[in-house]
Design the sequence.
């Protein structure tokens, strides 16, 4: 096992444990920029990594009754077919060739910047929604918007491995502003499990998962997430989110230029 991969897994786990977001946004660019892993393999490996870690998180949230399964079902109705279509598209266009690798690289950069926007403006967006209750979606319109959001996330996550965390949570806050923070987190994690699992299987089919790399990342991330969660109570959330947003902006710029 490579010590550097374990350290990387630990560092990302530590930050994710403290902030609650940023796993794919950090891990995938880190693998491509620091370790020279091809974009396709970085995305596939991170998806497998996410499906395992989010599966454990879902179990905990289920016991705490903080998962809104009806919303999970709506998101999956859009996300899972979209993930399958995106996988077939990657296969058709050549998931491992240089052109698609460059496309994935730019997709990662775009997804990272969306995550930054979600981190910085989530509170303002929530305040805007709550200030205008008449504009909140209801009934069939809300269901349709949820399914469409799931489809967009399905494509985004399959192509770049990024989006299920901060972007997904932000969409949930916008569509369902009455959910508690714990319910937003639990629902976001729960729908991401089948999505990342299907996307990971698709990348395994494409041959873009490094299983030894996955194992080493898990060895480092488990204690990192645990320690990060313990430290989260002592470090101001605003500082952590600003730190994460700054880091991700730099990563996106590096990916593009």
Sequence:
């Amino acid at each position: 096992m490579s010590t550097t991969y374990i350290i990387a897994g630990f560092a990302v786990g530590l930050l994710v444990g403290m902030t609650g977001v940023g796993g794919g946004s950090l891990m995938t660019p880190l693998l491509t920029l620091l370790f020279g892993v091809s974009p396709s393999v970085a995305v596939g490996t991170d998806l497998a990594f996410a499906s395992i870690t989010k599966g454990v998180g879902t179990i905990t949230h289920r016991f705490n009754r903080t998962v809104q399964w009806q919303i999970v079902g709506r998101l999956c109705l859009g996300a899972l077919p979209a993930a399958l279509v995106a996988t077939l598209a990657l296969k058709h266009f050549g998931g491992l060739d240089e052109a698609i690798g460059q496309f994935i690289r730019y997709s990662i950069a775009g997804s990272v910047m969306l995550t930054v926007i979600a981190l910085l403006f989530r509170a303002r967006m929530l305040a805007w929604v709550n200030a205008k209750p008449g504009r909140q979606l209801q009934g069939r319109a809300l269901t349709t918007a949820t399914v469409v959001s799931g489809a967009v996330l399905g494509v985004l996550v399959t192509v770049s491995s990024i989006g299920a965390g901060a972007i997904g949570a932000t969409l949930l806050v916008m569509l369902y502003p009455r959910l508690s923070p714990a319910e937003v987190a639990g629902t976001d994690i729960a729908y991401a499990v089948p999505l990342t699992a299907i996307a990971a299987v698709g990348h395994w089919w494409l041959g873009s998962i490094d299983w030894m790399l996955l194992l080493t990342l898990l060895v480092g991330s488990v204690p990192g997430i645990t320690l990060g969660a313990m430290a989260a109570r002592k470090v101001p959330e605003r500082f952590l989110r600003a730190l994460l947003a700054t880091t991700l902006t730099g990563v996106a710029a590096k990916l593009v230029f």
Observations:
- The longest helix spans residues 98-131.
- The chain has a mean pLDDT of 81.
- Residues 127 and 219 are 39 Å apart (CA to CA).
- The radius of gyration is 17 Å.
